Amino acid sequence: MSRIDDLIADLCPDGVPHKPLGKVGTFIRGNGLQKTDLTDNGTPAIHYGQVHTHYGVWATTTKSFTDPALAARLRRAEPGDLIIATTSEDDAAVAKATAWIGQGEVAVSGDAYIYRHVLEPRYVAYFFQSEHFQDQKVRYITGAKVRRVSGDSLAKIHIPVPPLEVQREIVRILDQFTRLEAELEAELEAELEARRAQYAHYRDALVVEESAPDWIALGDVAEFKYGYTHKARAEGDYRFVRITDINPQGKLSLNDARFVDASSGADQYLVKPGDLLVARTGATYGKTVLMGDIDRTVYASFLIRVRFKEGTLLPGYYWHFAQSEMYWRQARALVGGGAQPQFNANVLKMVRVPVPAPEEQQRVVDILDSFDLLVNDLSSGLPAELAARRKQYAYYRDRLLTFKEAV
Question: What's domain 17-161's superfamily in CATH?
Answer without folding.
Answer: DNA methylase specificity domains (3.90.220.20)
